[in-house]
Each structure stands twice: as structure tokens, then as C-alpha cells.
Design brief:
Low-confidence stretches: none
Order of helices and strands: EHHHEEEEEEEHEHEHEHHHEHEHEH
Mean pLDDT: 95
Oligomer: single chain
Bound molecules: S-adenosyl-L-homocysteine
Length: about 350
């Protein structure tokens, strides 16, 4: 069976041609799918026999809402989607001033093992298909009735560990006959899979690369992010320099503030040294406490001191506003809670 929504327009056109149909049928089917139809029956401008033929050879992915939580504080909505095979993933809709933004997942679970992250506790189950990544944007828009203008690949999973499907998704979501969301409105976050950063750089996409740094020295970073044992801070920064040279795009660094681990003055100084010569932006995130983890968020004073040290050194640093604090709206916490409840 063909996962029809994962096909790009060219592949769709070929599929329909192989069925003995004229080329324009490909675009018709493509357009229906990207409007979010859930069955071939709804494709009213296709003949009955053609719809039956499509039904025989292809399937349409349709996620259903397993749980939905709306923040009373700030309008953030968190979706737990149930996929065709029963697995669940999360999507968060955030209402920023610059537009409605969805934070989407790229895998069911994650195998990267970061010490502070809820998504990785039970490991990786599987990669998401391009269609399943796209569905999160499409069905969040349909369900909420809110137009989505920005996407961040910062949900469950490591996007560069599923690069092929993520690239296909980017092509689909960016296409003029689809949702048509511009690359400059998309951010991709990685824990630092160096060879894949180079692969991405070679494509010279206009998206924003976010690197989850969380510590400026390899000793600390290896303790909280196992990926650092494969690609250490030095290798990661060499890759960031290559990425910037190739794409000319400023890199954004994510830095979760963890009490006593990475929030000291010496950490800020080390970070400043590291960022020399790189056009960068530091996004400080107060750590979201995960039940299973001993790591605690930094105090407000520590966050402010850290930010000031960076700014005084000429490095743009923002403290991310936490949204949806009342609805477990971060980092795989809803899925984790849900599976724990189900398993008793
Ligand atoms: N795997 C990718 C994208 C998903 S995580 C990556 O590592 O970048 C998105 C961001 O949330 C990453 O910066 C991640 O390190 C951060 N994060 C995960 N758990 C967190 C927590 N408990 N508190 C704060 N940030 C967290």
C-alpha cells in the first residue's frame, strides 16, 4: 500500500499517469490531500472508478485526537494525536504575536537519551513518515480553526535522526499547492548530529537551524547529552561554522538553564568564548522539571545574571517565555503521562 500523502506533486502525477490518467489528475489529488480530506470518497471531481482504484492501492493517514489540553493562561493548545498504528505523538499550538506557531514531533519517542528530556525516557519506537509530520500542521490548523504561519521541529524526536522523511515533509509543507509555508518560517532543532548538520547545510535551505547546546564544555555536555560522546562540543562548533559559511543563516542555540549544572558565571564565560566569530543567538529556556529527573531549573536570579553576561559580551540572548505551564505543554510530557496511565 502506498502512503499517498507522503508523495510530492511529481510523484503523485507519476502515480496517476501509471493508472492511465492525465497529468492534471495528480495535482487534483495532491490538492485534496493537502486540504486535509480523510478519504478518497471526498475527492468529488474524480470518477468513482478512479476513487476505487486509489482506495485499492493507497491509504490516507488520519490522526485522531487522543487528548487535547487548552491552557487557560495563554491560549496554548496541546494535542496528543493517535496515529494509524495506535502510537501517540504530541503537537503544541502556540499563539505568538508574530503568528500562530506549531511545535511538531518527528519521531515516536527518541533514542538520544538527554538527561532532562521526557521524550527519550522510553527510547525510540519508530520514525514518523512525511505524511504524519505534515498531518500535525494540517490537522492542528483544521481542528483549531487558526491559520498556522510558523513551524518549529522541536517536539518529540530528533529530526536529524529521521532526516529523509523530515526533508520530504519540508518539501510538502513548503509547496505552493500545499500549505505553502515558507522555509524562513520554519525552525529545525537538533541535539547535534554532526554529519547530518553537514548534509542539511549542503541543501542550503532557508530555514533556521537551532542547536540544543545546554553546556559549553564537553565534560558537562556529555553528562547530560550522550550525543556529545559521539560528536563533542568542538566538532559541533566546527559543523556550525561550516553551516553558517554555506547557508549564511544565523544559528540559534538552545540553552536550558539547569540549577548548578550549566548556569554559573564560568559557564557563561565559556559560552561567550565558544561563540566568538559566529553569528548566533542564544535562546535560554528555564528547565522544565521532568518527574523522572533529578535536574532542577535555575533560579530567576541565575537566569538573569547569565543573560546579562551574554548581552554584555554582545551576544543576543533571550529568555524564552514559558507557555502552557498549566498543561504539561513541553517536551513529551503529555505522551509520557498518557502511556504511564494506560500501563497502570
Ligand atoms: N531532538 C531535538 C528537538 C526536540 S527537543 C533537539 O534536541 O534539539 C526541543 C528542545 O527542548 C531541545 O532544545 C531540548 O533540549 C529541549 N528540552 C528537552 N527537554 C527539556 C526540558 N525538560 N526543559 C527544557 N528544555 C528541554
Amino acid at each position: 500500500m502506498i502512503d499517498i500523502k507522503s508523495l510530492n506533486l511529481q510523484e503523485m502525477t507519476q502515480l496517476l499517469r501509471d493508472m492511465g490518467e492525465p497529468a492534471f489528475r495528480g495535482k487534483q489529488v495532491y490538492t485534496w490531500l493537502h486540504k486535509g480530506v480523510t478519504s478518497f470518497e471526498e475527492m468529488s471531481n474524480l470518477s468513482k472508478p478512479l476513487r476505487a482504484k486509489l482506495q485499492e492501492q493507497c491509504y490516507i493517514t488520519v490522526p485522531t485526537v487522543a487528548r487535547k489540553q487548552c491552557s487557560a493562561q495563554d491560549g496554548t493548545v496541546k494535542y496528543l494525536w493517535r496515529l494509524g498504528d495506535g502510537n501517540c505523538i504530541e503537537t503544541v499550538l502556540m499563539r505568538y504575536h508574530h503568528g500562530n506557531t506549531v511545535c511538531i514531533s518527528s519521531q515516536v519517542g527518541c533514542r538520544m537519551g538527554c538527561a532532562f528530556c521526557a521524550s527519550t525516557i522510553a527510547g525510540k519506537v519508530r520514525d514518523l513518515t512525511a505524511s504524519e509530520i505534515l498531518d500535525q500542521v494540517m490537522f492542528t490548523q483544521l481542528d483549531s480553526g487558526l491559520p498556522i504561519s510558523n513551524i518549529v521541529l522541536m517536539g518529540i524526536g530528533e529530526p536529524l535522526d529521521n532526516l529523509q522523511n523530515v526533508l520530504k515533509f519540508l518539501e510538502l509543507v513548503n509547496s505552493p499547492d500545499g500549505l505553502n509555508i515558507g522555509m524562513r518560517h520554519i525552525s529545525l532543532s537538533t541535539c547535534g548530529v554532526v554529519p547530518k548538520i553537514d548534509e542539511l547545510a549542503a541543501l542550503n535551505l532557508q530555514l533556521t537551524l537551532s542547536v540544543s547546546l545546554h553546556a559549553p564544555d564537553s565534560e558537562t555536555r556529555s553528562r547530560i547529552m550522550p550525543v556529545n560522546k559521539a560528536y563533542d562540543v568542538e566538532e559541533l562548533f566546527a559543523a556550525c561554522h561550516r553551516y553558517f559559511q554555506k547557508t549564511g543563516r544565523r544559528i540559534s542555540f538552545e540553552y536550558a538553564m539547569i540549577d548548578g549544572v550549566n548556569d554559573r558565571e564560568q559557564d557563561a564565560k565559556e559560552l561567550i568564548r565558544l561563540l566568538k566569530g559566529l553569528q548566533a543567538h542564544v535562546n535560554m529556556i528555564p528547565l522544565n522539571h521532568v518527574e523522572e529527573s533529578p535536574l532542577k531549573p535555575s533560579s530567576r536570579q541565575a537566569v538573569q545574571r547569565f543573560q546579562k553576561l551574554l548581552e554584555d559580551a554582545g551576544i543576543p540572548a533571550t529568555v524564552r517565555r514559558t507557555l502552557g505551564g498549566d498543561i504539561d505543554a513541553s517536551c513529551g510530557q503529555l505522551r509520557r503521562k498518557y502511556t504511564k496511565e494506560k500501563n497502570g
